[in-house]
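Incident log, entry 3
Record: Putative 4-hydroxy-4-methyl-2-oxoglutarate aldolase (229 residues)
Problem: checksum mismatch between cached and fresh output.
Input:
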Amino acid sequence: MTKNLPFIRKDIERVSADLVKRASQFQAAILADVGGRRGALGGRIKPLHPSMKVAGPAFTVEVRPGDNLMFHAALALAEPGDVIVVEGKGDTSSALCGTIMSTQAQAKGLAGFVIDAAARDSAEIAEGTFPVFSVGTNPNGPTKALSGRVNWPVTLAGTTVNPGDLIVGDADGVVVVPKENVEEILVLAQKKVDAEAKRIAAIKSGDLGAPWLLATLVQAGVLKDGETL
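Fresh output:
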């Protein structure tokens, strides 16, 4: 690889800590909705425990399936608050991380791991406070020998993640928000939260109708103009 195209990029532009803090107050689903129902990683990536939540800038890693050499390189370079995001090609033949790496990451102040691959030591990790999102689990350990890249664009479960993008994950899964759009998305997210709270309050007070439903059914050709359910 040429001098201008290094395997490892050390300097990245991150979404700010203030925006991360604000974003952490929203559900991943809210952010995905106001982002145009896009940005969510495929549903195969889930937290090792439903209570796990994560928010922070993406520190991206591409590895060869079953090898975690570059994951270790990222762990050495990542800064407090970062979420290490690993393109593991969806491989579950061996685990790319376990208790030792998650303990090291937590000691460094990292925010979490999101890996498109398997993890192990899941029971121990689930009992702790460091969030790990993965495709699943496997007791096999990885190799540590093959090259990859750090802080290049990666793709996890069908969604592209760029270094420094906002990552937010919870029991529903993980959503990525491009760092350029975070402030706008957070404004829209608050409006949606307020609107949903109003709607839920109306339902609880007895308003069980959906005001948009009939018009949408007509537009879809399910009902004719003037018909009702």
